[in-house]
Structures are given as structure tokens and as C-alpha cells.
Amino acid sequence: MARQEQHLQVLSALDAAKTQWYHFTAIVVAGMGFFTDAYDLFCISLVTKLLGRIYYTDLTKENPGSLPPNVAAAVNGVAFCGTLAGQLFFGWLGDKLGRKSVYGMTLLMMVICSVASGLSFSSTPTSVMATLCFFRFWLGFGIGGDYPLSATIMSEYANKKTRGAFIAAVFAMQGFGILAGGIVTLIISSAFRAGYPAPAYQDDRAASTVRQADYVWRIILMLGAAPALLTYYWRMKMPETARYTALVAKNAKQAASDMSRVLQVEIQEEPEKLEEMVSRNNTFGLFSRQFARRHGLHLVGTATTWFLLDIAFYSQNLFQKDIFTSINWIPKAKTMSALEEVFRISRAQTLIALCGTVPGYWFTVALIDVVGRFAIQLLGFFMMTVFMLGLAVPYHHWTTKGNHIGFVVMYAFTFFFANFGPNSTTFIVPAEIFPARLRSTCHGISAAAGKAGAIVGSFGFLYAAQDPHKPDAGYKPGIGVRNSLFVLAGCNLLGFICTFLVPESKGKSLEEMSGEAEEDDEVEMAAGGPWAPSWGHSGSC
Fold it and tell me: In whole angstroms, how large is the CA radius of gyration of the chain?
């Protein structure tokens, strides 16, 4: 067991601190980064139909234009590729240079690339899509850095009693970012529809897409810079986390000074105790045998669960076409003008976010420090498996007339339990269980595994779910939506099993979880395998 006298006073003060104003400041500053991330990553799906109409419509054809499959995959997926690279790079850099200095870099990159992605050069389809993809890759790169840094900063600032809720609250801003993307698109498309009325495509093909529609998608993408810009000043004002300053930079004086100011209490510097703590147990690296023995399977667990979760989470686009069309939220494209189609897509996405996405995040915030990470993650994966099978087994029943409302309810519950479940916990746990000097790196690796799952879910299943007999234009026959749902249920079941590789961190300090407060022999006992940390009793040591 970790002994209290081995703890630095500055770390003990943070662990025991009552919820104060600086906690909420940190949640807002880190959370607004996530708000921006979600807005930027998800808003592209609201305007891809519009891009197809503007740049790929052939007026001799019965239906309006749509992005060719390879272009659609590039436009939607290039930001994910950038995010994966950014998570690995900035995760590593956050451990080398410090959380605060790297945090500002990611934000500036997001602001610049959000604006630039709306300024795609020229007017030919190829050049517009090429420049859009270029800037969205680098936008994703900046967003990628926000994952490990936001989680690590919040975990290192929080007290141990409510740490899970604080990190979950940062992640929950993702839900509001998705919601904001829908609302902003609704407002802008409504304003342009009112100002520039247009007939449906089937009534007048040329006039159905007004020239001003080209401004709509650009404005929506560029507005992603606004929330990030608003929080830049506050990010720069935040002091470096005490855990990085003390345990990685080995500057006890600075750590005590920074946290004395933040907590408004007198904190002793204790350089001798820091020296003893660091020298005893702070040498092994990421690729060492010691790391593999102590945390190797933990990292495998956090990475695999995030990977498997994101396959299912980002495959939601499989259902949306069926749902929105079947309940007439989005009629056939030729019966609408370009701006009306944008309006209807954003309205549908906003309702989904409001009913199925946002509530799940806040259930996690409320309950994670009550029932623990393990229970929420297991429940989430289990219920996602159940609801995916509930969609798949009687799939033909759900797609017949009169049963569509049941399909929508099942769909909403699947993503409620993703957010009140592994979508939140896979973000939280990697920020709590690894040593301070490797925390950001390991979170970045776990998050990058998740983003690889997102790429598989978004694009692998987009092709796999094609009807074996009547695939969409430009696609090859696949295994169909029903069989894809069975595969996704299997992914959730694997996630359920892999959850057992990750230790419970509820109620424990970061140093207890990482072994930094313990002697080498004590760490060996505590890390006697991923099955050793008890899920059942998660109280403080």
C-alpha cells in the first residue's frame, strides 16, 4: 500500500481539495477545446450533400449530384487520419515539453485550419476538395492533440473524490459541440433559404442550387474557430500541472508555488521528498520491460476497448440513411432544393444529438464516481451488444412500414449506452492509470487506437454494409446492413471482454494507480497482472 508520508504535500493537497472555482475553470477551458473538436469533426457530415450538389451535379441526370465514393471518403475521413497522427505526436510531446506549452499549439492549429478549410481555393471540384482535405488533415492533427492533453490536464488538476466526473464533464462537451454544429447549420441554412428561395431539383434543376449556397458550407466550417479562439487566453493563463512540474520536470519549488496560488493555501516545497520519490521509482520508459510488466496489459486494455468502441460508435452512419428516409425526416434529394436538404439533415442530426447523444454523457458525469468506471463500461458494452442484436435479428421487421419508430428508439438507446458507457470511460481511464512522465503518451496511444477504430467504423462498414444485390452508385456489393449489425454486436462483445484488462481507478490517487508513490516491491505486488487490481473494492488505499 502507498504510505501517506511518501506523498508530496502539493499532490496530497490536490487530491484532498474541495471542489473549487479553479476546477470549473479547468473544465470550461479544457471542455471548450472538446466542444470545438466535436463541432469541427462532425459538422462536415452536415454539408457533404451540399458539396455534392454544388460541385458534382450533372443537370442531364434525374437526381442531384453527390460526392463520388472516393471523394466522400477523403472529405469525411481525412480529419480522422490527422487526428490519429496528432494524438500520437502531441501525446508524446505533452510528456516531453509539458502539458501547458503544447496545449496552446494545438489550439492555434485548430483555429488557423478551421478558417483555412472554409477558404478552399479556386472553384473547380478537384482544387476545392484537395485544399479542403489538406486543411482538414491539419485541423484533425490539432484536434488529436486535444485528446491526451485535455484528459491529462484535467486528471492532474482534479481531486481524487470527483476526478472521474471532472474528466467526464470535459468529454461531455463533445455532445454540446455536436449539438452546436447542428444548430449553427440550422440557423445558417434557414437564413439563406429565406434570403434566396429556390425550387426543388425536380422542378428546376439549375435553379435548385443557388450560387450563394457556396457560402453556407464555408461559413459553417469557419465558425469552428470561434470557441477555440475565445479560450486561447485562458489556456495560456493556466499554470502547468503540479504533477508534471514536480514528477517530470522535478521542480518542487515551482509546483508548490503554482498550486499555492491556485488552491490559495500555503504548500511546502519538500525538494528532498521529491528527490526520494523520483529516484525510487521514476526511471523506466515506455518500451522497457518494467513498463510492459507493470502497465503493458493496461495499455493493451485501454487501446483495444477504445478501438472496439469506436468501430461501433462511428458506424452510426449505416443507420442514419435508413432512419431519416423511413420516417420522412429527409425526403428524396430530388424533391428538395440544395439548402432545404442541408436544413433537413441538420434538423435530423440535432434531434439525434439532443435525444440520444447529450443525455448519455451527463449520466456518466453524475454516476462515474458513484459506481465506478468498470461498471459503467461493462454496462455500456453489454447494452450496446443487446441493442445491436435487437436491431439485427428482426431487421426486416424494423424496416417494414409502421415499425420505424421502434427502430429509432433502439438506435437512440444504442448511442445513449455508448455515451453512458465506453465512449466516456475509454477517454477517462487512460488519464488516470499511467505514470506522470508517460501519461499523455499512453493516453495518445489509446486515443489513436480509438481513431483507427473510427476509420474502420466509418469507412470499412460504409463499404461492407452495401446491399449485396443493389449497392449504391459507385460502391461494390457488401454484406448488407443486417450482417454488418451482427459484426458490430461482436465488436461490442469483445469490448466487454477486454474491459477486464483495465484496473478500476475510482477513489484512488493518480500516484496509487501508477505506482509512483510506492516502493518497487510494492508496485510488483500491485501490478501482479491486470486481473490483480480488484474491480469490486475501489476505495482509496
Answer: 24
Q: What are phi and psi of 144, to 5 degrees?
A: -55, -40
pLDDT higher than 80, residue 516: no
Do residues 64 and 209 touch, judged by C-beta distance below 8 A?
Answer: yes
Q: Is residue 527 part of a domain?
A: no
Is 26 contained in some domain?
yes
Q: What is the pLDDT of residue 169?
A: 94
Q: 159, 232, 244, 231: which is closest to 441 by C-alpha?
A: 244
pLDDT in tens, 211-268: 999 999 999 999 999 988 888 888 888 888 888 888 888 888 888 888 888 777 777 7
What does the buried/exposed string (b/e) look like for 386-417 if buried means 16 or more CB atoms within 10 Å of the residue's CB? bbbbbbbebbeebeeeeebeebbebbbbbbbb
| Cα–Cα distance measured from residue 249 to residue 434, given in angstroms and rounded to the nearest whole number | 17
CA-wise closest residue to 355 among 405, 305, 311: 405
**What CA–CA distance (Å, rounded) separates 275 from 112?**
42
Question: Is the model more confident about 121 or about 369?
Answer: 369
Rounded alpha-carbon distances, angstroms, from residue 447 to 75, 91, 180, 452: 21, 9, 23, 9
d(C-alpha 169, C-alpha 29), whole Å: 11
Q: How far apart are the C-alpha atoms of 498 and 502, rounded to whole Å?
A: 8
In contact, 173 and 34? CB cutoff 8 Å: yes
Q: Which of 187, 182, 176, 188 is nearest to 218 (CA)?
A: 188
Residue 229 forms part of a structural domain: yes
538 assigned to some structural domain: no
Q: Report how far Cα 214 is from the mean position of its chain's Cα atoms.
A: 29
Whether 530 shows a pLDDT value over 50: the answer reads no
* Of residues 234, 245, 262, 306, the one with CA closest to residue 27: 234
What is the distance, to the nearest Å, from the Cα of residue 436 to the centroid of all Cα atoms in its chain? 22
CA distance 453 to 328: 31
Gap between the Cα atoms of 365 and 163, Å rounded? 10
CATH classification at residue 78: 1.20.1250.20
Total tally of structural domains belonging to the chain = 1
Distance (Å, whole) CA 312 – CA 453: 8
The string of pLDDT tens digits covering residues 436-475 is 889 999 999 999 999 999 999 888 877 787 878 887 777 7
Domain of 209 in residue numbering reads as 11-275+290-516
Q: Provide long-range contacts, Cβ within 8 A and 24+ apart, for 180-183.
A: 180/35, 180/39, 181/38, 181/39, 181/42, 181/43, 181/46, 181/220, 181/346, 181/349, 182/46, 182/346, 182/347, 182/349, 182/350, 182/353, 183/346, 183/350
Q: How far is Cα 432 from Cα 454, in angstroms, rounded to an integer?
A: 23
Which residue in 505, 352, 358 sits closest to 433, CA to CA? 505
